[in-house]
């Protein structure tokens, strides 16, 4: 486990550190905001849920940005390689570049799930508290 984690960090490069930081901060923040938003008498579920969804999208977006920049580096490196080795280097480079996308999506799971659950709670509360107008 630790060996594959260290290998993933080596493949992902410097981009893995902010993704890991967002992932480590995302779980406790998601739990705390969900607990407060779900039990609050005020309508805090909307802003907390929306904030968690946005916070959940940050690691995924950062992973995609890192993938794009790393892929540009791979394409630049392949430009000076013989055509016989080009396909092998592209396949290896693609798998290394996708490491940041995988990490970003993994770090996004908890904030997104808890944020969407809070938005669902907010919609359910709004539906219960405000009757629909009739003609």
Brief descriptors of the model:
135 residues; mainly alpha; 4 helices; 0% strand; elongated
What does this structure look like?
The chain has one domain. Helix 2 runs antiparallel to helix 3. The protein has 4 helices and no strands. With 135 residues, it is an all-alpha fold.
Given helix and strand content, the structural type is mainly alpha
Helix content: over 70%
| DSSP summary, beta strand count | 0
Number of helices: 4
In short:
The protein has helices spanning 2-12, 16-39, 45-78, 83-129. It is mostly helical and 135 residues long.
SSE topology sketch:
Elements lengths: L1 H11 L3 H24 L5 H34 L4 H47 L6
Helix pairs in contact: 1-4, 2-3, 2-4, 3-4
């Amino acid at each position: 486990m630790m060996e594959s984690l260290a290998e993933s960090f080596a493949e992902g490069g410097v981009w893995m550190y902010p993704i890991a930081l967002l992932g480590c901060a995302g779980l406790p923040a998601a739990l705390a905001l969900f607990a407060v938003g779900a039990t609050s008498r005020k309508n805090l579920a909307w802003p907390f849920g929306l904030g968690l969804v946005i916070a959940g999208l940050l690691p995924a977006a950062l992973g995609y940005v890192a993938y794009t920049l790393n892929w540009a580096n791979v394409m630049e490196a392949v430009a000076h390689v013989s055509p016989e080795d080009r396909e092998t280097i592209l396949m290896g480079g693609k798998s290394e570049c996708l490491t940041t996308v995988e990490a970003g999506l993994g770090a996004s799971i908890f904030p997104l799930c808890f944020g969407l659950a809070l938005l669902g709670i907010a919609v359910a509360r709004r539906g219960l508290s405000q009757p629909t107008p009739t003609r």
